[in-house]
Amino acid sequence: MTALRTLVTVSAGVCAAVLVGGCSLVAPPAPRPQAPGPGDRVVATARAAAPAAPRRAAQLEEDYRTVIREVLPSVVQIDAREGLGSGVVFDAKGNIVTNAHVVGDEKSFRVTVATGDEPLPARLVSSYPEQDLAVIRLERPPAGLKPARFGDSSTVEVGQIVLAMGSPLGLAGSVTQGIVSATDRTVSESRSGGGTGATLGNMVQTSAAINPGNSGGALVNLSGEIVGIPTLAAADPSVGSAAPGIGFAIPVSTVRNIAGQIVRDGRVTDSGRAALDVTGRTVLDEEYQPAGVAVVEAARGGAAADAGMRAGDIITKVDSEPITTMTSLLEALAGKQPGDRVAVAYTRGGRAATARVTLGEM
């Protein structure tokens, strides 16, 4: 994860009225009373409304404090051998949801919860790298452990104020603020730095700062509901560092679905993610540029094989989306559902063809 910081410059227009009088020390004659004009009414209204702004600011500040008091006790710090991350208490039984890249290949962890200073032992229940989610479970859940309230992704809108809570750089109980900048983003993680390399759909984009250690924590609305799990920050390829103010969180609907299955069944049994059921690799053209995905294997009885595709085919398009790399293929499928029918354009022996594929499930 890479630190993000948002700097917003706001220009405020200030209107000042200047009254110019004579230089005489003698008081001028009193002016005749006049009926208030439109300008006077505007000034009076503005003056009367002015005290409302501080009241609104004070209310917003109190809303922040209320949400922090309510939610922060449900956010934990996870200490793995390879580093620190965050997690959210999923239920009173000690299940904690976090990112798969936080737990990595490890099975045991030390967790610091809000109800005590001593780290508590926890073990991995299951990890699902394809969606970068995992659940760990406290071996001895403490009294007073407070599960978070998980919201509804359908209510998340651009412009909503959100708070990111977690342990950035090991600073437990830290809070940053921003807004929902966009929804339904599709992003791909790097495999470097412990990333899963997953392609994630329906992500919530936020301007709230997401720093190393925030991964697996909470993205919260002002109703005190979890609306996402902060997962990664955007990188600016032109400079090779973080793109300020661009972070991404896994939407709460996905979190509830995947974590719920892991808690109930010990593993993910229904991913809800579409698949072609192929093993593929990126191929290059004569200029060494990515030019498609070669099918290495089409699983028997899988979506692609049932549509007549086979090993050696080179996929170049899914519906209207050009396919040049494995990442672009995964991104094209991220917005689809199992059972959707798509047109897959491919070449076989230099000849172009199109297959109508009913997508399977990852």
From TrEMBL:
<feature type="domain" description="PDZ">
    <location>
        <begin position="280"/>
        <end position="350"/>
    </location>
</feature>
<feature type="signal peptide">
    <location>
        <begin position="1"/>
        <end position="16"/>
    </location>
</feature>
<dbReference type="Pfam" id="PF13180">
    <property type="entry name" value="PDZ_2"/>
</dbReference>
<dbReference type="Pfam" id="PF13365">
    <property type="entry name" value="Trypsin_2"/>
</dbReference>
<protein>
    <submittedName>
        <fullName>Trypsin-like peptidase domain-containing protein</fullName>
    </submittedName>
</protein>
<keyword id="KW-0732">Signal</keyword>
<dbReference type="InterPro" id="IPR001478">
    <property type="entry name" value="PDZ"/>
</dbReference>
<keyword id="KW-0378">Hydrolase</keyword>
<dbReference type="InterPro" id="IPR036034">
    <property type="entry name" value="PDZ_sf"/>
</dbReference>
<dbReference type="InterPro" id="IPR009003">
    <property type="entry name" value="Peptidase_S1_PA"/>
</dbReference>
<dbReference type="InterPro" id="IPR001940">
    <property type="entry name" value="Peptidase_S1C"/>
</dbReference>
<keyword id="KW-0645">Protease</keyword>
<dbReference type="InterPro" id="IPR051201">
    <property type="entry name" value="Chloro_Bact_Ser_Proteases"/>
</dbReference>
